[in-house]
Amino acid sequence: METHFVVQSETYAEKTKRLLSRYRFRFQVRKVTAAAGCSYQFTVAAEPAAVFALLSAQRVPYQTC
Amino acid sequence: MPNPSPVYFDNAATSFPKPPDVSRAVQEALRTAGGNPGRGGHPLAVRAGETVYHARETAAALFAAAPEHTVFTQNCTHALNLAIHGTVRPGDHIIISSLEHNSVARPAAALADTGIISLSTARVFPEDDRTVAEFRRLMRPNTRAVICTLVSNVTGQILPVQKLAAVCRAHGIILIADGAQGCGILPVTLRDGMHLLCTAGHKGLFGPMGTGMLLSDGTVSLKPLMQGGTGSRSASLEQPDFLPDALESGTVNVPGIAGLDAGMQYVRRHGTAEAFAYESALCERLIDGLRRMPDAVVYRTENARYAPVVSFTLGREAPDETAARLAAQGFCVRAGLHCAPLAHHTLGTGSVGTVRFSPSVFNTEQETDAFLRALRN
Questions:
Q1: Rounded to whole angstroms, how far apart are CA atoms A18 and A21?
Q2: Which residues of chain B are within 8 Å of residue A59 when distances are taken between CB atoms?
Q3: For residue B164, which of B206, B193, B139 has the smallest C-alpha distance?
Q4: For residue range B152-174, what is the model confidence (pLDDT) as tens digits?
Q5: Count: domains in chain B
Q6: Could you say which of B39, B53, B67 has the minimum Cβ distance to residue A38?
Q7: Which residues of B touch A38 (CB under 8 A)?
């Protein structure tokens, strides 16, 4: 099971990387530069419920994709 | 003949010298992190972004904040304006202390002069409890914020911010603390209870000039002073509503922030208690010497607590003349009103001000003794 989401703030992308590492999630992140600005596409090897609960608890502004 | 290597006692204006790591970090950022953070996916932009985030983490660790609630600013004045203008609403009442710098007094006065808010000034007493009681006396149902410096930039008096925070929180009032003179010297953190902590980066935190920070406890929503590019949510014409993006429009000062990071790491390694004790001992040495000079007046009182800053005057010699005489002998101090006319009015020195001596951990007893000798010349 993989969870995909996008973070559009560099500060929160850095925070998300540290959070996922701290909670021992396996993940990949890709920085994408597009007309709408930079975004960070995360792929996490875990159930969406667990990942999104963590992001919500830590008030990370993310978008599902 | 002027001293070829000036002795710097003006650290309340900006600290000098900086720890060597600070200039190394600035150079490293210029050399290796030359991209625009958040504005590209290439390696130099990513490196710049990591540099900035690392500084946020250092600030967060030093001040018990969240990294994303650390907003980088141009200086403390910028941070205070973000906090003050971002907090108040039409019809609000705010209270400032009688020792505030113009970085607080001017934005507060500007808001009051245009009728947007009403403003009260709380007299600061030597005794903390009297000061807190005065703030409490001035509070009204529509009091939105109290703005208070941690340390007077003129006399070094330490204000009872922790006690004020408890009173403010009990009344639902936002406490904005001006940490320009206290951060790096006092063990201040957001756990002291203020909602917003504003600080210069270039004083006790040893960053380069052009750096400052606003640290939020995350409970106060601030209207931005300006809008612009943040590298986030670029398709929207609305300013992002989350920190730090909401308040960090435009490219941030990456080399300066890298230097500030190194300065804050220096403070974390050495601790504020060590700096406070060392610099206070230099101030006591100066005060002992001044007390042997019959015409010297030191602006300290018995019941107050002081950070390592000393204001004094010498008889009929105007403070700017004293400072000029010292400068000619190779000593750097600041004379006059120190951008704090309220404080000088409170002291009774509002016409000419004082001479301010503000050492750092890089000054020595020998330099302090030489300063005293220069005063007697």
A1: 5
A2: 218, 242
A3: B193
A4: 999 999 999 999 999 999 999 99
A5: 2
A6: B39
A7: 38-41, 231-232, 234
A→B interface, C-beta within 8 Å: 8-12, 14-15, 31-33, 35-38, 59, 61
Measured in angstroms, the CA of B73 and the nearest CA of chain A are apart by: 15
State pTM to two decimals. 0.94
Same domain assignment for residues B203 and B280:
no
**What is the tens place of the pLDDT at every residue in B1-50?**
444 689 999 999 999 999 999 999 999 999 999 999 988 888 899 899 99
Residues of B engaging A, defined by a Cβ cutoff of 8 Å: 37-41, 46, 49-50, 52-53, 56, 67-68, 218, 230-235, 240, 242, 244-245
Write down the residue that tokens 């019809």 correspond to.
B91
Task: Give the domain extent around B324.
Answer: 7-17+271-376
H helix runs in chain B, sequence order: 20-32, 43-63, 76-87, 102-113, 128-138, 161-171, 254-270, 272-291, 319-328, 341-347, 365-376
Domain end point (choices B270, B289, B311)? B270
Distance from CA of A2 to the nearest CA of B (A): 24
Please list every residue in chain B whose beta carbon sits closer than 8 Å to the beta carbon of residue A8: 232-233
Separation in Å, CA of B132 to nearest CA in chain A: 35
pLDDT digits (tens, 9 = 90+) for B294-315: 999 999 999 999 999 999 999 9
Phi-psi sector, B147: left (phi>0), alpha (psi -120 to 50), beta: beta
Whether B166 and B288 map to the same domain: the answer is: no
Taking 90 as the threshold, does the pLDDT of residue A31 lie above it?
no
Residue B1 lies in a domain: no
Domains of chain A: 3-64 (3.30.70.120)
- pLDDT at residue B236, as a whole number: 87
ipTM greater than 0.90: no
- Of the candidates A12, A15, A37, the beta carbon closest to that of B234 is on A37
Based on the fold, state whether residues B257 and B277 are members of the same structural domain.
no
Same domain assignment for residues B250 and B344: no
φ, ψ of residue B275 to 5 degrees: the values are -65, -45
- Residues B102, B154: contact at Cβ < 8 Å? no
Asked, for residue B2, whether it belongs to a domain, the answer is no
The verdict on whether omega for the bond into residue A48 sits within 30 degrees of 0, i.e. cis, is: no
